[in-house]
C-alpha cells in the first residue's frame, strides 16, 4: 500500500545508484520537484527512461546523474536542442551517455507490455526506418498465425517510476486527468513508484471521462508537493511556463551558467519552493 511521506524520504528509500528510472508526463505533469530531489541527493549511474526527455532530463544529465537514456524524442519543445544532452553525447561531459532511441509508438507499446508483465512488445513499425541499424534492441518476430513480420522491442520495467499527479486521497489512491500520457503504464510496470501530487484530499471525486485512478496498492510512495510539475503544467492548477522553456536555452548552453543555475535553484533549494507556482485555477 502507498505510504504518504516526504519527498526526501521517498527518493532516499526508492531511488538507488545504478537504478533504471522512468520519469513520465507528456508535456503535462512532468515531475520536476522529484527530479530535483534526485539531483540534490547525488544519485548517480541512473539509466533514465522517458518518451520525451526535455528540460528535466537535460538537468539530470548535466548534473552527472545519468549513465544512459532510453527515449523517443529529445529536445526543448518549441525552442531547440537540449544542450546538456548534446554535450554529453558529443563531448562526454560531464560523463559519457549511452543512448537507446525508439519511436513514440515503440515506447508506448513497451510501457504497456511492462505493465502487463510481458517480456516484449510487438508493433507495426520501423518499416523503412534507419533506427534498426543503430539500435540492437529493435528485433523482428513472425506472427505464427499470419506469417506477418512485426517489430519487437523489450518491455519497459523500471526499477522505479516517478510521476506527478493532481490529487491523492489519504489512503494513497492517485488521480490523474487531462493529458495522461503513459503514467499509468509506467507505474504498473515498475518495481517501485513515487507519485508527487498537488494536494492530498479526503475524496478524489474524479470528475472527467478521462480520469485515471491509480490504486494505493500499485504505488509505493505518495508525496504532497504543490507546484511540483512547474515549469510544465498541472491541469486546473497552473499553466505551463513557456517563458522558462525559452530561458532554459541560454541557461543550459554554457557549462558554467548551467552549473550556477543548478547550484542556486536545486542544490540550495527545497521542495517547498515549488509551492509559489501552485496557484490553483478557479
Structural notes for this entry:
By secondary structure, the chain is α/β, with parallel strands linked by helices. It has 9 helices and 13 strands. Strands 1, 2, 3, 4, 5, 9, 10, 11, 12 and 13 form a 10-stranded mixed sheet that branches. A 3-stranded antiparallel sheet has the order 6-8-7. α2 links the parallel β2 and β3. α3 crosses α4 and α8 packs across α9.
Summarize the model shown:
By secondary structure, the chain is an alpha/beta fold. It has helices at residues 7-14, 32-40, 55-62, 83-91, 104-115, 131-134, 183-188, 242-253, 255-267, and strands at 3-4, 20-23, 46-50, 66-71, 98-101, 120-123, 139-142, 149-154, 160-169, 174-176, 192-201, 212-214, 221-224.
Topology:
Layout: E1 3-4, H1 7-14, E2 20-23, H2 32-40, E3 46-50, H3 55-62, E4 66-71, H4 83-91, E5 98-101, H5 104-115, E6 120-123, H6 131-134, E7 139-142, E8 149-154, E9 160-169, E10 174-176, H7 183-188, E11 192-201, E12 212-214, E13 221-224, H8 242-253, H9 255-267
Parallel strand pairs: 1-13, 2-3, 2-9, 3-4, 4-5, 9-11, 11-13
Antiparallel strand pairs: 6-8, 7-8, 9-10, 10-12
Helix pairs in contact: 2-3, 3-4, 8-9
Amino acid at each position: 500500500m502507498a505510504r504518504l511521506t516526504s519527498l526526501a524520504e521517498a527518493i532516499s528509500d526508492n531511488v538507488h545508484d545504478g537504478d533504471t528510472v522512468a520519469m513520465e508526463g507528456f508535456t503535462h505533469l512532468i515531475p520536476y520537484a522529484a527530479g530535483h530531489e534526485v539531483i540534490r541527493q547525488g544519485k548517480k549511474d541512473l539509466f533514465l527512461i522517458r518518451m520525451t526527455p526535455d528540460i528535466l532530463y537535460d538537468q539530470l544529465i548535466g548534473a552527472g546523474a545519468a549513465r544512459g537514456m532510453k527515449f523517443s524524442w529529445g529536445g526543448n519543445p518549441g525552442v531547440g536542442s537540449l544542450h546538456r544532452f548534446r554535450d554529453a553525447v558529443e563531448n562526454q561531459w560531464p560523463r559519457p551517455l549511452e543512448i537507446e532511441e525508439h519511436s513514440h509508438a515503440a515506447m508506448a507499446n513497451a510501457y504497456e507490455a511492462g505493465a502487463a508483465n510481458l517480456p516484449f512488445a510487438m508493433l507495426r513499425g520501423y518499416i523503412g526506418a534507419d533506427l534498426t541499424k543503430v539500435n540492437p534492441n529493435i528485433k523482428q518476430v513472425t506472427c505464427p498465425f499470419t506469417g506477418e513480420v512485426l517489430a519487437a522491442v523489450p518491455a519497459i520495467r523500471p526499477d522505479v517510476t516517478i510521476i506527478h499527479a493532481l490529487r491523492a486521497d489519504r489512503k494513497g489512491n492517485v488521480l490523474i486527468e487531462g493529458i495522461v500520457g503513459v503514467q499509468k503504464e509506467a507505474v504498473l510496470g515498475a518495481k517501485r513508484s513515487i507519485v508527487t501530487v498537488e494536494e492530498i484530499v479526503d475524496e478524489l471525486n474524479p470528475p472527467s471521462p478521462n480520469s485515471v485512478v491509480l490504486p494505493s496498492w500499485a504505488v509505493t510512495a505518495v508525496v504532497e508537493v504543490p507546484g511540483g510539475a512547474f515549469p510544465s503544467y498541472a491541469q486546473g492548477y497552473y499553466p505551463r511556463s513557456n517563458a522558462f522553456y525559452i530561458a532554459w536555452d541560454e541557461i543550459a548552453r554554457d557549462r558554467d551558467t548551467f552549473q550556477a543555475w543548478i547550484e542556486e535553484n536545486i542544490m540550495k533549494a527545497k521542495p517547498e519552493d515549488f509551492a509559489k507556482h501552485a496557484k490553483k485555477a478557479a
